[in-house]
């Protein structure tokens, strides 16, 4: 029967033999050749079972029905479990266990023999640090849990198991610190996960989109990380992490807006420079969102607000450009996004060359040809570079920038104010798993400030485990 | 991390809402300029009177915790008297919101976008405010909390720059009280009604705040706002002189435009426009939301979004169709007797209700004492 | 909801942007001049418009950086709009630095002329208000600049602002003018430009010939309320600047105290002026008290100072000379005020600040009574140093 379900698969191996338990019993094992360690099967299953005389001595009195008990004394694998249905057996085999069937018994055994080839632990590509651990999550969920567990050696750290995806049967682990995480939050996460029934879960992004509070907002209300240290840090703050097999990206809930502006390295550096860098990121956020809109509104609506000498310079360069300023911004903005996307998708060595070509040569040539003005190129460069400082808010920044730019083009400074107000009230209305998205700022809590605008020296917050909540 | 109930106002939120509401549209006027260089004395005196009113308003909240103004009116005056009163309150704040809205639109029209039709300016603003309020009280509160620091920083910067600019002359404040107290006292009542007496609107909001925080927060924020308004008047007078201050349509704009520090810090009208925007926004939104609260109580409406949208369209329509031009509006708002009386009535009814409450309590206490003996 | 926002935006973009002013479509006005027209009641409005293409790198230095455009109208605004008939760009006045009004027009009153500028949001209050003395405003704006600045208005503004270290002339912004005119007890003194002939040296290579017109900032123009009544010469202007505390950083030339007949100069570090009104039985008297801190910067006299005591006495003499000089200058200004019957020193406003009741009574006939007032001048000078030298040197 099992053969019927799995037999057409080339990677499933059936092997039958005579097991020597009390007497020879006809038995066969079934496993997936790609997911198991062959040596392990040989060492832990075949060898103990097939060696004649080895087993009589150990279990002479055991009743024949107590299969698992008997075998648990014989098999020296790390984990053995009894399975009763074919369905269960199929799942176990497909996930890398070995199933052992003995003649005359109505249940089988699932034996831990998994040994999957996986990518070695390497430095995460998305969140590079100068100072801090160099390890990142891999695609193996077991390894990922181990990485977190190694950071927090505490029985309070709980991993709860779930399986999602009716087709893919992806393993999901819910991680949280018992006693620190809000039980309501954990319950909420569980209900949300159990309510969804996706066909497939290939990456944590699938889950993210299914369980987030506001599916239509451009703001990310669920965080993700590739770094065990930052996940551990968030767990200690009382958050819940969702690990998903097959991806190094771990989801963290609830996620606040300000967290997008932080990196774990902020806590490893000395506070002076850390605070400076945090401040820099806030400035970068404002710059990258507002620069194009402000430039448009200043140069085509409120020229009075530009200092005279600067205005003279801008006017002199603008004089040769045939387009209105707003069109100019849109043109060069599109060009910038094209170059950026090309730089990401290109093979690495070409990618960097591409960026240089794009930025230097095209920009320079466009100015020379009188298609765009030089201040405009500077303006776009400031926008682009500032945007790179805050990769977590990539999409947010892009859309708010365009939104504000269009409003500024139509209504000048008033448009920027209106746009900002819409964005602000939108962020204020967001929630992440019942927590206000803008949390330590609005609603305001002075306690949360050490994670928002400042990084207080660690020494000063002795009880930071508790305070961080 | 803590889960926060979205229907409660935290202390900071209440603080920022009251402060923004109080300063609100005062950035558009020279308050009490009828008293010339003593305008700041007027503001201070008005603030003291405002404190008295505020004490009454907060005392009502203390006596009837957890009840909104509409419920208080209902329970004190009875259903038949309360319903029209609540409706009139809604009208009053509706008119107030319309005025704020109108002034705001006109200012933007005159100073930023003189060729853009007012309809566009106003409807863009109305839609934005409707969006914000449709998201609920929590969003209004959080937005105010988020924007108040920006408002304050801009205001303080403006005042600071004005003080260090070459046009700042303290001697313009002299002589103090040259004509005695008479002109000052004459100006006080109007300054009490606007902006200090307008805190009456928060009668609708007290029920969302923590009971024991109301009074201290309210006094702190009104005091803070009052001092800032006073500082604003002092700066306006010292920079412009009483003569020009009384004659400028937007005195603070004149002040800001006169700032020129080293050719770099100049043309700071952006700062003022941002302040007018934030101040006008919250002044209007808080009035607007009070209307929504009153109406939804009156009509037992469960879907607040509908009321928000209807009221918003109402405000837009009313201010476009019935309010004409800025000078006319200033004249009516300042001089017309009915409008003045309106102010007094709406701000003094709480006083009446409070007296009833006190009497009620006395009577209850008396009855209890009788019963005991 | 976001979609609604986007729809509004796109509507805005599509329906057009009413207030958009592309930089390529505006002419940045750097200076405004107003003259009296040939017909009675006419005004000639002149705008100096910057030409940004002339300032671009690589353009020939021959190209003028500004254009002057004039037009005639009954009101300033009419003139301003008529400008568009013979000029291709719409004027943009937010970067205007200076307003020049001709003497003739100023005699009829400045407030009507300035009204439009004060109403306008574009013209800022801090622009310098100037009077073209003995010439037309247009001519002042038309003089080829001599300094480094390549925009003529910036050059004019430059000389006005140089006044900080040379208080021979009065300067006033439009806001200050309004403040004084609308206040009581003081009349304004306005910046004054006149045109002088000056010889160019060959190195300057001016094509205009050896003798060219130049703008000079000198003295001040006295207004009775908003009407021009007279001019101050340089000494009187110094006296005025002393009294209103505007002698910020100027120099005082004095005779050398060590070597008779030779000049010396001292520089002012700070001054402070107070007008103290005093009530007497029937009349009011004033004391103008000036406190100054100075430093000796130059003494052309020859002499020798040997001891510290000599040094001290030497400086004390300088102090006395400076005080005498200051007092004389202020007295000249007072005499001029009495002569013009115009209280431009602010005696009235000082009285108002101290004795508002008395002022109320006297306010109406103040300017008539001015000549009979007793005004004392007192200068307190403190010398704080004599530079790197103790005293003058003498060749042996």
Kindly describe this structure.
The complex is a heterotrimer of chains A (469), B (373) and C (396). Chain A has 469 residues and is an alpha+beta fold. Chain A is built from 16 helices and twelve strands. Chain A has three domains: 110 residues, no CATH class; 115 residues, no CATH class; 162 residues, no CATH class. In chain A, the strands form three sheets. In chain A, strands 1-2-4-5-3 form a five-stranded antiparallel sheet, sandwiched between helices. In chain A, 42% of the residues are buried. In chain B, strand 1 and strand 2 form a beta hairpin. In chain B, helix 1 crosses helix 6, helix 4 packs across helix 11 and helix 8 crosses helix 9. With 396 residues, chain C is an alpha/beta fold. Chain C is 32% helix and 30% strand. Chain C has 13 helices and 14 strands. In chain C, a hairpin with a 7-residue loop joins strand 11 and strand 12. In chain C, helix 9 packs across helix 10 and helix 11 packs across helix 12. Chain C is globular, with a radius of gyration of 26 Å. Classes of the chains: A alpha+beta (469), B mainly alpha (373), C alpha/beta (396). Chains A and B meet through helix 15 and strand 12 of A and helix 5, helix 6 and helix 10 of B.
Write the layout of secondary structure elements.
The complex is a heterotrimer of chains A (469), B (373) and C (396).
Chain A: H1 2-6, E1 12-21, E2 23-32, H2 38-50, H3 67-74, E3 80-83, H4 86-94, E4 98-102, E5 108-111, H5 141-151, E6 157-164, E7 170-177, H6 183-195, H7 204-211, E8 223-225, H8 228-236, E9 240-244, E10 250-253, H9 271-300, H10 308-318, H11 325-345, H12 348-369, H13 374-389, H14 394-411, H15 413-429, E11 431-432, E12 435-436, H16 464-467
Antiparallel strand pairs in A: 1-2, 2-4, 3-5, 4-5, 6-7, 7-9, 8-10, 9-10, 11-12
Chain B: H1 11-23, H2 39-63, H3 69-77, H4 79-111, H5 118-134, H6 137-164, H7 182-193, H8 214-247, H9 251-258, E1 260-261, E2 265-266, H10 269-298, H11 304-321, H12 326-335, H13 337-372
Chain C: H1 2-15, E1 26-36, E2 43-50, H2 52-55, E3 66-73, H3 76-82, E4 90-92, E5 98-102, H4 103-107, H5 111-119, E6 128-132, H6 137-142, H7 152-161, H8 174-182, E7 189-199, E8 211-217, E9 220-224, E10 227-232, H9 234-243, E11 251-255, E12 263-279, E13 284-299, H10 308-340, H11 347-354, H12 356-362, H13 366-369, E14 374-383
């Amino acid at each position: 029967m099992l053969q019927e379900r799995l037999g057409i698969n080339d990677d499933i191996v059936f092997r039958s033999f005579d097991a020597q338990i009390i007497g020879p019993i006809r038995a066969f094992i079934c496993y997936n050749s790609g997911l198991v360690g062959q040596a392990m099967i040989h060492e832990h299953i075949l060898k103990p079972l097939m060696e004649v005389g080895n087993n009589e001595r150990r279990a002479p009195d055991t009743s024949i029905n107590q299969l698992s008990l008997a075998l648990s004394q014989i098999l020296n694998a790390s984990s053995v479990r009894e399975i009763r249905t074919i369905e269960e057996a199929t799942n176990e085999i497909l996930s890398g266990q070995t199933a052992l069937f003995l003649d005359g018994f109505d249940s089988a055994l699932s034996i831990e023999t998994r040994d999957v080839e996986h990518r070695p632990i390497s430095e995460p590509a998305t969140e590079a640090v100068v100072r801090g651990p160099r390890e990142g999550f891999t695609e193996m969920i077991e390894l990922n849990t181990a990485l977190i567990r190694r950071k927090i050696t505490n029985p309070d750290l709980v991993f709860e198991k779930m399986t999602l995806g009716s087709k893919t049967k992806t393993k999901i682990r819910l991680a949280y610190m018992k006693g620190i995480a809000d039980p309501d939050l954990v319950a909420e996460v569980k209900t949300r996960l159990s309510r969804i029934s996706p066909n497939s879960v290939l990456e944590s992004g699938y889950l993210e989109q299914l369980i987030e509070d506001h599916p239509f907002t451009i703001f990310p209300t669920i965080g993700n990380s590739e770094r065990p240290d930052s996940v551990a840090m968030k767990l200690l703050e009382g958050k819940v992490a969702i690990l998903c097999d097959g991806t190094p990206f771990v989801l963290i809930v609830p996620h606040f807006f300000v967290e997008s502006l932080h990196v774990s390295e902020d806590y490893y550096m000395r506070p002076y420079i850390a605070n400076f860098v945090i401040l820099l990121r806030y400035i970068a956020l404002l710059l990258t969102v507002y620069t194009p809109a402000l430039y448009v509104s200043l140069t085509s609506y409120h020229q009075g607000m530009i200092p005279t000498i600067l205005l003279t310079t801008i006017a002199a360069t603008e004089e040769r450009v045939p387009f209105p300023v707003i069109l100019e911004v849109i043109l060069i903005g599109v060009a910038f996004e094209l170059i950026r996307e090309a730089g990401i998708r290109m093979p690495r060595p070409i990618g960097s060359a591409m960026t240089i070509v794009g930025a230097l040569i095209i920009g320079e040539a466009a100015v020379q040809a009188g298609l765009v003005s030089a201040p405009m190129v500077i303006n776009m460069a400031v926008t682009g570079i500032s945007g790179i400082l805050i990769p977590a808010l990539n999409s947010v920044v892009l859309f708010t920038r365009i939104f504000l730019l269009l409003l500024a083009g139509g209504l000048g400074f008033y448009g920027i104010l209106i746009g900002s107000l819409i964005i602000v009230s939108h962020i204020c209305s967001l929630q992440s798993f019942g927590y206000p998205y803008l949390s330590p700022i609005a609603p305001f809590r002075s306690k949360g400030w050490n994670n928002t605008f400042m990084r207080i020296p660690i020494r000063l917050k002795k009880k930071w485990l508790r305070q961080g909540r | 991390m803590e889960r926060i109930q979205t229907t409660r106002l935290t202390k900071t939120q209440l603080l920022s809402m009251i402060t923004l509401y109080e300063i609100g549209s005062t950035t558009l006027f020279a308050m009490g300029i009828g008293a010339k260089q003593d305008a700041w004395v007027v503001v201070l005196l008005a603030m003291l009177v405002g404190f008295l009113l505020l004490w009454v308003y907060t005392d009502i909240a203390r006596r009837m915790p957890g009840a909104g103004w509409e419920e208080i009116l209902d329970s004190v005056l009875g259903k038949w008297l309360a319903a029209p009163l609540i409706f009139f309150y809604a009208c009053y704040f509706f008119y107030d919101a319309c005025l704020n809205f109108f002034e705001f639109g006109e200012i933007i029209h005159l100073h930023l976008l003189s060729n853009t039709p007012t309809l566009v300016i106003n409807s863009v603003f109305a839609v934005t405010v409707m969006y914000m309020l449709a998201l609920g009280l929590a969003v209004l509160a959080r937005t105010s909390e988020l924007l108040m620091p920006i408002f304050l920083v801009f205001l303080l910067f403006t005042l600071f720059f004005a003080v260090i600019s070459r046009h700042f002359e303290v001697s313009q404040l002299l002589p103090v009280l040259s004509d005695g107290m008479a002109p000052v006292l004459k100006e006080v009542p109007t300054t009490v009604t606007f902006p200090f007496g307008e805190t009456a609107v928060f009668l609708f909001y007290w029920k969302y705040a923590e009971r024991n925080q109301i009074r201290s927060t309210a006094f702190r924020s009104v005091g803070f706002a009052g001092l800032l308004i006073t500082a604003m008047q002092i700066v306006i007078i010292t920079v412009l002189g009483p003569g020009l201050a009384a004659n400028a349509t937007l005195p603070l704009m004149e002040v800001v435009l006169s700032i020129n520090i080293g050719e770099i810090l100049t043309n700071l009208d952006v700062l003022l426009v941002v302040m007018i925007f934030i101040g006008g926004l919250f002044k209007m939104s808080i009035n607007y939301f009070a209307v929504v609260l009153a109406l939804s109580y009156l009509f037992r409406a469960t879907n607040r979004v509908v009321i928000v949208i209807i009221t918003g369209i109402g405000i837009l329509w009313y201010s476009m169709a019935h309010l004409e031009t800025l000078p006319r509006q200033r004249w009516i708002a300042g001089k017309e007797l009915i409008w003045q009386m309106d102010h007094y009535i709406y701000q003094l009814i709480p006083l009446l209700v409070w007296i009833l409450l006190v009497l009620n309590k006395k009577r209850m206490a008396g009855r209890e004492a009788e019963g005991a003996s | 909801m976001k979609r609604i926002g986007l729809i509004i935006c796109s509507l805005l973009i599509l329906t057009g942007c009413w207030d958009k002013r592309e930089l390529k479509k505006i002419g940045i006005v750097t200076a405004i001049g107003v003259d009296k027209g040939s017909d009675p009641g006419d005004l000639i409005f002149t705008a100096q418009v910057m030409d940004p293409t002339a300032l671009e790198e690589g353009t020939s230095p021959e190209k003028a950086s500004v254009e002057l455009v004039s037009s005639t109208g009954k009101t300033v605004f009419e003139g301003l709009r008529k400008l568009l008939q013979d000029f291709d760009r719409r004027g943009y006045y937010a970067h205007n630095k200076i307003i020049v009004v001709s003497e003739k027009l100023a005699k009829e009153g400045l407030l009507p002329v300035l009204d439009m500028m004060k109403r306008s949001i574009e013209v800022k209050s801090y622009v310098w208000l100037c009077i073209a003395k003995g010439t037309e405003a247009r001519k002042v704006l038309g003089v080829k600049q001599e300094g480094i600045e390549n925009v003529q208005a910036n050059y004019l503004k430059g000389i006005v602002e140089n006044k900080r270290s040379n208080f021979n002339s009065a300067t006033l912004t439009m806001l200050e003018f309004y403040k004084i005119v609308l206040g009581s007890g003081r009349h304004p003194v306005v910046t004054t430009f006149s045109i002088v002939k000056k010889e160019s040296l060959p190195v300057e290579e001016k094509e205009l010939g050896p003798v060219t017109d130049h703008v000079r900032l000198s003295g001040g123009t006295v207004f009775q309320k908003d009407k021009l009544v007279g001019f101050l010469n340089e000494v009187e202007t110094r006296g005025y600047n002393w009294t209103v505390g505007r002698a910020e950083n100027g120099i005082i030339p004095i005779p050398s105290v060590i070597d008779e007949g030779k000049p010396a100069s001292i520089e002012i570090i700070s001054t402070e002026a107070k007008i103290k009104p005093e009530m007497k039985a029937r009349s009011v008297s004033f004391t103008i008290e000036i406190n100054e801190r100075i430093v000796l910067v130059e003494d052309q006299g020859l002499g020798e100072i040997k001891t510290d005591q000599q040094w001290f006495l030497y400086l004390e003499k300088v102090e006395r000379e400076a005080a005498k000089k200051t007092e004389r200058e202020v007295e000249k200004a007072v005499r001029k005020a009495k002569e013009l019957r115009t209280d431009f020193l602010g005696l009235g406003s000082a009285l108002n600040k101290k004795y508002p009741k008395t002022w109320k009574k006297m306010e109406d006939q103040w300017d008539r009574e001015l000549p009979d007032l007793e005004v004392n001048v007192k200068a307190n000078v403190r010398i704080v140093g004599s530079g790197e030298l103790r005293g003058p040197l003498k060749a042996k």
